[in-house]
Design goal:
about 300 residues, alpha/beta, Immunoglobulin-like, four-stranded mixed beta sheet
């Protein structure tokens, strides 16, 4: 299950060798580094006077260094920005007295102390919720995740995990609502649609389960990887439970094409073939299971089938 949730080193002074005349002017200089202390090239450093409309802007060089000369004496707000990261400091600039101001750009560098505190509290709550879920304390996890979505109502992963926790407690109404919310916040989440399909399947709402599973398969296929095989397998299970053995067989075959190592797809394909009276195909599928997972949970049962089925 996913548990992706809410996700410096010190800046070092940079010394510049200045020509004699420049030292008589105001100078602000420094360096911009990233979270790992590496120089940030191309960061925009904006220098704005607090008591006038005076403004200057420079960019950092390949070493993360910047410098601005000739500003009038006074107080300034200095902002370093690169992509979506920024940091702000205040500085007093005076003639003949170089000002050094270093910046470190991190996800929290542009936040106020109160915002940083709120983020830390939210992260602690998220960590506690994940730990509770991993430990099987689903009731506690549900409470914590519900507290979390009050603080962060756009957290799609929080709603996804709520859906998982509710499903484990067979609280399917709440699980359905949580997965639906997750799909609204993250329309591209194959996992959320898979969770929704499992909830519908558990309630024997097979048509809705099939629709949700088909959407999961579509999304998983669009991003590539093994998720497509899992979604196809889930579609097969839903059709199997609905008694649609031919359709289930088709989905299990597609799942195997997507991931030839998906042992349970071979097992379910064998069972579908048995129900359709296709004995040679069933034997081949069961043999595929043993090849994919020789000591799997179904290996004893599969070996028994193979002993009984005609060659």
């Amino acid at each position: 299950m996913r548990t992706h949730l809410i996700r410096g080193s010190l800046a070092f002074a940079v010394l510049f060798v200045m020509a004699g005349p420049a030292l008589a002017q105001s100078v602000i200089r420094g360096r911009v580094v990233d979270q790992g202390g590496k120089p940030v090239e191309g960061a925009v450093v904006a220098i704005e006077a607090t008591e006038s409309n005076r403004r200057a802007q420079v960019k950092t060089n390949r070493n993360g260094e910047y410098m601005q000369i000739g500003l009038p004496s006074g107080r300034y707000n200095v902002t370093a920005t690169k992509d979506n990261l920024k940091a702000v400091q205040q500085a007093t600039i005076s003639q003949g007295n170089p000002t050094e101001l270093n910046f470190q750009l991190t996800p929290q560098s542009g936040l106020t102390p109160e915002q940083v505190k709120q983020n830390q509290e939210t992260q602690a709550l998220a960590t506690a919720a994940i730990d509770a879920m991993r430990a099987g304390r689903d009731e506690e996890a549900i409470k914590l995740f519900n507290d979390l979505v009050v603080k962060v109502p756009t957290c799609s992963d929080c709603f996804y995990n709520l859906g998982v926790a509710y499903s484990k407690r067979q609280q399917f109404t709440e699980a359905e609502a949580s997965f639906v919310k997750a799909t609204e916040l993250a329309p591209g989440s194959a996992d959320a649609y898979t969770g929704l399909a499992n909830v519908y399947n558990a309630q024997k709402k097979f048509d809705q389960a099939q629709q949700a599973s088909a959407k999961a398969a579509e999304l998983a296929g669009s991003i590539g990887g093994g998720g497509g095989a899992e979604a196809l397998y889930n579609q097969g299970v839903i059709m199997w439970n609905a008694g649609k053995f031919a359709e289930a067989k088709d989905q299990f075959e597609k799942a195997i094409q997507a991931d030839p190592k998906l042992a349970m797809a071979y097992y379910q394909l064998g069972m579908a073939n048995l129900n359709l009276g296709q004995i040679p195909a069933a034997r081949k599928a069961f043999e595929g299971y043993l090849t994919a997972d020789p000591s799997g949970a179904k290996s004893g049962e599969v070996q028994g089938f193979l002993k009984q089925l005609p060659q």
